[in-house]
Design brief:
mainly beta, 14-stranded mixed β-sheet, four-stranded antiparallel β-sheet, about 10% helix
């Protein structure tokens, strides 16, 4: 190892998935120091956030979490592929909320554990390292939470939580924007920062800002962390026939992705190729209902690999790889899933969060028993079994199955 230049070692390691790097920390002290260095963590995060993805799966009550690496699945491999679904060994802390229904507010592999009750504890959680950071209680308790989000401000190198509340006891609706800084560990109310175009869902983080869709006016509300101001973007909608009944906004593969649902029988997926440029919105594909697939409102993209031109999609309890250029998809069967579950894709993160945030932990022996029980009871596998192809090569086509369901 001494013969390899340190710059080359750094360049190699920052391309390695985060879960592997956690194991590599035990190789030598030099590697451990490197992987704990904030500058290396930033470089690794920038390299991994669009090239690597992990699927996080949560059961209905948040007591069980599992994950699988989407990097290990290969759409171009015609052979049946098998991948293990690993239990996420959550470190339970008294008072810290469990993982929400997914997708939750997230940024660079970190997840915000929040609650609508302003008196409840909030926390930032790293599911890979199993570390938490508990947020201080919110300033104003006479308010009702409208929406929230987690983001990263590159200008100050700081992770921040943003929330919008409606103040109670007033004659007319008044909204208040507040920002929490992880560096200073404090909440701050943003003055003269008002916007009424919100979605109740958590904001989607991309390019230093949070995004919400507002379907009634076909606009996207943007909160920029660096300037702590609001901006507006236009939807791509307006070029096709009919009016969507529902829409979903995502940040996948470094792009804003908008899914339009038309009365349960059609799904259009648009991607903003160049951030902030309205003319760069492109409709990548359109699906229509087929009996073998079911209602389109149950189908949603959960990961986008831009360089490969491929989407990983969920439809109820089923998952699919979809290749945009080939107009074809392959069904992915995940065995042993909970009866009811939710899912979200996110990159792995090495970012360190302190666990000694005045939160009492369970005993080591109790946690060990729970981990052993989870490891023994959960043995899942993923197998690509069917090759699904779209029967028409035109932009708007239907699905047909070439094999058994």
């Amino acid at each position: 190892m001494s013969d390899i230049p340190s710059e080359l070692v750094h360049n190699i390691l920052r391309r390695v998935p985060a879960d592997s790097l956690l194991r590599f920390r035990t190789v030598c002290k030099e590697w451990r120091r490197l992987m704990d260095d904030p500058s290396f963590i930033r470089s690794h995060t920038n390299n991994q956030q669009y090239s690597s993805a992990t699927l996080l799966i949560r059961n209905s009550d948040g007591t069980r979490l599992h994950s699988l690496s989407l990097d290990s699945l290969n759409y171009n491999n015609d052979a049946h592929q098998v991948i293990d679904v690993s239990p996420v060994k959550t470190v339970y802390r008294a008072g810290v909320p469990r993982a929400h229904l997914l997708p939750a507010a997230s940024c660079n592999g970190l997840i915000l554990l929040s609650h609508s009750d302003v008196k409840k504890i909030w926390a930032i959680w790293n599911p890979l390292t199993r570390q938490f950071h508990k947020l201080p209680k919110f300033i104003n308790t006479k308010s009702c939470l409208i929406t929230t989000g987690l983001g990263y401000d590159s200008a100050s190198d700081d992770y921040k939580v943003m929330r919008v509340d409606e103040l109670l006891g007033l004659r007319k609706p008044v909204y208040q924007t507040s920002v929490y800084s992880l560096k200073s560990d404090t909440w701050r109310i943003i003055k003269d920062c008002k916007c009424n175009y919100y979605s109740m869902k958590p904001g989607v983080f991309l390019n230093g800002a949070l995004h919400w869709h507002y379907i009634r006016r076909y606009i996207i509300t943007v909160f920029v962390f660096r300037t702590e101001t609001y901006e507006l973007m236009r939807h791509p909608y307006g070029t096709g026939p009919g009016e969507p009944s529902r829409m979903h906004l995502d940040a996948l593969g470094g792009c804003l992705v908008v899914s339009y649902y038309y009365t349960m029988d059609r799904l259009d997926v648009w991607v903003m190729k160049e951030y902030g440029v309205h003319e760069s919105w492109v409709k990548l594909f359109s699906f229509r209902e087929l009996g073998s697939i079911g209602f389109m409102e149950c189908l949603r993209p959960i990961a986008y690999f831009k360089t490969k031109g491929q989407f990983f999609m969920q439809h109820g309890e089923d998952f699919f790889w979809f290749d945009v250029e080939k107009n074809s998809a392959k069904k992915v069967t995940i065995r042993g899933l909970p009866e009811y579950f939710s899912s979200q894709s996110l990159p792995g993160s090495l970012f360190l969060l302190d666990e000694s945030c005045s939160v009492a932990g369970k005993s080591t022996s109790e946690m060990k028993r729970k981990r052993n029980k989870a490891d023994a009871s959960v043995k899942h596998s993923v197998r690509i079994t069917d090759d699904w192809s779209r029967s028409d090569s035109t932009p708007e086509t239907s699905w047909s199955s070439s094999g058994d369901d």
